[in-house]
């Protein structure tokens, strides 16, 4: 491995582990997942609930997706490696079974869940080691679903914010093709879909949301403060976000993978 590959790996590992430093703020400031998106990810019929389904929320964080799964009636088991995130989940959802653990060594028996749901975390897993683990804990016919809340960059002021964040502008509503399957080893079938989502924010609270993102959370203190000041200054300069509450336009991207 070259020095720059090693550096890239180290930076990814640092980002994957950055969330705990923000655990309380993460729970307050990150957007929820739309019920329709979660239902679709689980392959539950529109309008139906997930009662009777045992669902593993893997990389559960503070429990944002866990809450949506519980609301659909699923019997949820949450697994999360970061002690601070897990503590926040246990504080907010004391009735949910939870375990310390990671995708590469899931602390559950073989064929013990009907679905594995992953919110905003699949990209942090070591695919070669995690996929056999996910396949192992799923019952035959079970589904793996990954959900991501993404800023809607087709809205101009949101694209402007992405530029300040230093993110590539991705116009998902125009470019996403659900049948552009994202291949994962061991799962021959997959599809994907976008769902509308929005997050009620103010300039202040959206700045706090930005602070929970891994790319910002890992910056050195002075650089992070400067980036957040720049984000806040932008938000108070844009008519749509300058005063009071507004809806931050989001899209929730859902992928699902299964074997027959
Ligand atoms: C962006 S947070 C998402 C949390 C939660 N799923 C949600 O939707 O809000 C990513 C989570 O993945 C966890 N994570 C990172 N690497 C992981 C791994 N290898 N296995 C399981 N979870 C991991 C982090 O600790 C963090 O809680």
What would you note in describing this structure?
It contains 11 helices and 7 strands. It is of the alpha/beta class and 260 residues long. It has a single domain, classed as Vaccinia Virus protein VP39 (Rossmann fold), CATH 3.40.50. Helix 5 (83-92) links the parallel strand 2 (75-80) and strand 3 (97-100). The chain starts with a helix and ends with a strand. The structure holds S-adenosylmethionine (SAM).
Distance between the termini: 38 Å
Mean pLDDT: 93
Ligand catalogue: S-adenosylmethionine
| Largest sheet, spatial ordering of strands | 3-2-1-4-5-7-6
Biggest sheet descriptor: 7 strands, mixed
CATH superfamily: Vaccinia Virus protein VP39
According to CATH, what is the topology?
Rossmann fold
Q: What count of domains describes the coordinates?
A: 1
Query: What is the CATH level 1 assignment?
Result: Alpha Beta
Q: Unreliable stretches, pLDDT < 50, 5 or more residues?
A: none
Domain Methyltransferase type: 56-144
InterPro entries: Diverse_substrate_MTase, Methyltransf_11, rRNA_Ade_Mease_Trfase_CS, SAM-dependent_MTases_sf
Organism: Streptantibioticus silvisoli
GO molecular function, one term: methyltransferase activity
Summarize the topology:
Blueprint: H1 3-16, H2 23-29, H3 35-41, E1 54-58, H4 64-71, E2 75-80, H5 83-92, E3 97-100, E4 113-119, H6 127-137, E5 138-151, H7 156-165, H8 172-175, E6 189-201, H9 203-211, H10 214-217, H11 221-237, E7 246-258
Parallel strand pairs: 1-2, 1-4, 2-3, 4-5
Antiparallel strand pairs: 5-7, 6-7
Helix pairs in contact: 9-11
InterPro entries: Diverse_substrate_MTase (IPR051052), Methyltransf_11 (IPR013216), rRNA_Ade_Mease_Trfase_CS (IPR020596), SAM-dependent_MTases_sf (IPR029063)
Domain Methyltransferase type: 56-144
GO biological process, one term: methylation
């Amino acid at each position: 491995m070259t020095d720059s590959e090693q550096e890239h790996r180290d930076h990814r590992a640092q980002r994957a582990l950055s969330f705990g430093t923000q655990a309380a703020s993460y729970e307050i400031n990150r957007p929820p997942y739309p019920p329709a998106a979660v239902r679709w990810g689980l392959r539950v019929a529109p309008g139906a609930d997930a009662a009777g389904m045992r669902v593993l929320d893997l990389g559960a964080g503070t429990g944002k997706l866990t809450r949506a799964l519980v609301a659909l009636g699923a019997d949820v088991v949450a697994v999360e490696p970061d002690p601070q995130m897990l503590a926040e989940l246990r504080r907010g959802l004391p009735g949910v079974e939870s375990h310390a653990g990671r995708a590469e060594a899931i602390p559950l028996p073989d064929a013990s869940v009907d679905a594995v749901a992953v919110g905003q975390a699949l990209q942090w897993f070591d695919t070669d080691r995690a996929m056999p683990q996910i396949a192992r804990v799923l019952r035959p016919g079970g589904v793996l679903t990954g959900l991501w809340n993404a800023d809607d960059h087709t809205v101009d002021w949101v694209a402007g914010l992405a530029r300040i964040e230093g993110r590539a502008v991705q116009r998902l509503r125009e470019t996403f093709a659900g049948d552009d399957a994202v291949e994962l080893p061991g799962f021959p079938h997959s599809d994907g879909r976008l769902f509308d989502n929005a997050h009620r924010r103010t300039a202040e609270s959206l700045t706090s949301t930005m602070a929970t993102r891994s790319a910002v959370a890992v910056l050195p203190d002075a650089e992070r403060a400067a980036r957040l000041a720049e984000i806040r200054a932008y938000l108070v300069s844009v008519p749509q976000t300058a005063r009071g509450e507004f809806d931050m336009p989001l899209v929730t991207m859902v992928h699902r993978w299964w074997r027959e």
